[in-house]
Amino acid sequence: MKADRIKVFLIFALFFLSVPCFAQVPDELEFNLEFSSPAVSTPKIYKSNIDLSGRGAHRDLALPQTIAAPEVLTAWEADLGFGNFYRLQYNLWEIQQLAKDKVNQEKLLSNYEEIIKKISASGGIVMLDLFGTPNGLGRVLDRNSAPHNLKAYKELVKNAIRKLSCERKYNIWYEVWSAPDLGDFFLGDKSEYLNLYRVIAEAVKELKQETKINIPLGGPSSSAWFKNIQPNNILTPEVSLIYELIKYCYSYRLPLDFISWHAYSSDPQEEKQDTIYNKSFIKLIREWLSYFHFDNNLPLIVDEWNFDASANVSAERGKNAYIAASFIPARLKNMYEAGLDNQIYFCLEDFGGNILGAIRNLGARSFDLAHPEAKGYTKPGYNIFRMLNLLGQELLPAKFSDEFVGVIATKSADSLALLIYNYIDPQAAMNYLSRNIIYLNNAERKAALNIINSDRMRKLLSGQLDMATLRLSPKTKTLFGAAVELNKFVNKFSVDNRKLKIILKGLKDTYIMSSYTVDNKCSRDCEFKASDEQDVDFNLDYSQIIELAPYSVQLLVFKKKPAPPVVLASESQTTPLQPADLASGDPALVLQPEVKPVEKAVEIKPAENIPEVKPEDAQPVVKEKNAEAK
Questions:
Q1: What is the CA radius of gyration of the chain?
Q2: Cα–Cα distance measured from residue 318 to residue 366, given in angstroms and rounded to the nearest whole number
Q3: What is the pTM of this model?
Q4: Separation between Cα atoms, residue 356 and residue 287, nearest integer Å
Q5: pLDDT band at 310 (very low <50, low <70, confident <90, very high)
């Protein structure tokens, strides 16, 4: 009993320690950075990784129907390259649909492979998502059906992996399905998904033994880290499909090289969600891996994420796409701090005009949905990925804390890059409650959910309902009080600019500062170029105040200015130097002594041929040479 009381006390204390004091959110901020601080290699999570999905309106059957338009892929390659981490949906159903049209089927396979080849040749990694069940292999007549003929499905997948990984030796990680916990994507139960994973894992094991080539395999790519095919929530994480897959792979000695899941949210701190075990869910997953004798450093990857307000078409990703753009660096910074290994943004291009009739404006690029064959355009988020490509090779510790403003500081040998964002989560109060509700007991949680799911929540946030009138425990009132306080700052800073004073130390010499901005002034095809360039002398104390508009991102790049070349005065210089020029000491202004080429030695003939020369004839020549020497 005493131990239980201590446990309850610790949970209660942890809750109050976790409640931030939003009353301390200042209007003006200060960021200090020491350039010589110990740094680490810039994590992969800060790279411009992206899922290549989109559009789905290709008239040519030989083009993958769930991949962005060919010209969009070409533009991305030209603008950002293919040297990072890219997810590609490999639709086995679509491929088999052309079984009777061998010409187009071969073209389709060739188009898939061409993309994979480009990424692999650029030093990038392809996460190839295997999904879709060909006709005749499924439990029901549907492309999303769980395979019924597992033997035939295994051979189909095995042949594809043998060609791409063993024969072509492309750099591919294989992922088994996508969102199998959602009925729109997988028609089957938990055991059917695990059996599907097993036959693919067995194919991979056999190919590894046969070729001695490493073939990474993972999953389950569930729609959230805690989700399973049967209903589940964050209060029972051990029922998640991730836990089930780890346990299953241990039991059947199957390869499991990474764990993946989706995470759509407007909350930049999504990956910092705690569990009922008083630890973050990322730490919990690593403990599951250790318990079942896997390496607990196995890559944990969010394979799909984006700004999401529970809508397929969102204004924050459309006409106000600068909001979703400012979300990107805020989310990445929190992902890194939470201990996530990697991420893949979804997706490259919006969806529209496709066979399935799906319309989603999740892309970094878009197009006229009424004319899906029209040329597309970039959205503000596209320029955020360009900013990420300009970050330095090493990450500096950025000791800076604010609810909305953040800084990602990087450096290279002769440069410094500061990525500064001002993202205000429109749903900050509700997301705060969601992250902290696990600290309440069952009765408190039930009372809290009754308020959250009623009109009282809106009235509470707007100040129309007095907290004192609610029959809640002190802990629950503290939780709701913090949410109300946070909501006030959301309303304030969604319209007010913030000022940030930047103080940089530890640098010498003169640098050229270039500034790039993404904000509400542009919503499509925004030009990406430095809006301001100026010299910065770091030999003096340096500080700068910048103003951050709501939902804006600024990138400041400082590059060491090359030393000016030494210019020697030419022989043709005729303008005489003034005393002031000589006093300046500028080497470019000071005439150097004339240096004549070495004269060729005079040939000396034998003595009998030397004519007699009188002393008085040679004297003038000597005088002339002495005068020249002077």
A1: 33
A2: 9
A3: 0.87
A4: 40
A5: confident
